[in-house]
Amino acid sequence: MSITENYQKIREEIPEDILVIVASKTRTPEEIVEVIEAGATDLGENYVQEAEKMKQELGEKADTVRWHMIGHLQKNKINKALPVFDVIQTIDSLEKAQAIDKRAERADKSVIPVLVEINIGSEDSKAGVKPEEHEPFEEYMEKLIRDISRLEHLRVEGLMTMGPRFGNPEDSRAYFRRTREIFEKIRGLNMLNVDMKYLSMGMTNSYRVAIEEGSNMVRIGTAIFGPR
Predict the structure, then answer these.
(1) How far, in Å, CA of 141 to CA of 145, rounded?
(2) How far apart are CA 110 and CA 35, in angstroms?
(3) Residue 217 φ then ψ, to 5°
């Protein structure tokens, strides 16, 4: 099937209130144009330079969608990232949040929506806040988000997790469930300057299980574009 058919099939399958982020890493401008014209509203990129180049090549078409940073954001790339991305999904420390806040002021960005990334499997190969390093974890996350919420130019809008990657998506269920429990607990605190709207979890292999466990934002690439 074509990119258009794949996207529309997924969009018909997934309830309307769940946001589909099209993971566009390494895709061509032609592929991105096709998925935008098929109805995509949000694109996710892993690397600042790739996203910057893609936006330049797309021209005005780039302004018709929201751009999400879904890869690890290095501090030395923050200045370049701010003009490119509308949402940063990978905040994993107060220090990084403070660095973005400081640069946002210089870049004349009033408010940047961000998600806090949890490395729910505490995997060494992945970024994100690791539960095993911060016990009791729920208390740590509450303090982290409360501290970020005091920054002038950032607004916390939810949590993001990759979750361990298994061949069988059922193996991810417990990790997604725990992330949702943390999300619900923080949302219930009704913190100032925190709007816990989004629980971003689930990719091509696991988005169905993630949605069953409460995800309302999924990041899908291969199921739309086909294998790289």
Answers:
(1) 6
(2) 30
(3) -150, 120
The three-point CA angle 208-36-25 to 5° equals 65
Under a CB-based contact definition with an 8 Å cutoff, are residues 139 and 125 in contact? no
What domains lie within the chain, and their CATH numbers? 3-225 (3.20.20.10)
- Yes or no: say if 24 and 54 are a contact pair by the CB < 8 Å rule: yes
Mean pLDDT confidence for 1-29: 97
> Which residues are 227's β-sheet partners?
none
Mean residue pLDDT across the chain: 97
What pLDDT, on the 0 to 100 scale, is given for residue 109? 83
The structure's pTM equals 0.97
Q: What's the confidence (pLDDT) of residue 26?
A: 94
pLDDT tens per residue across span 39-97 = 999 999 999 999 999 999 999 999 999 999 999 999 999 999 999 999 999 999 999 99
CB atoms under 10 Å from CB of 215, counted, come to 27
Say which residue the tokens 């990790």 belong to: 175
Distance between CA atoms of residues 134 and 142, nearest Å: 11
What backbone torsions phi and psi does residue 166 show, to the nearest 5 degrees?
-115, 155
What DSSP character marks residue 50? H
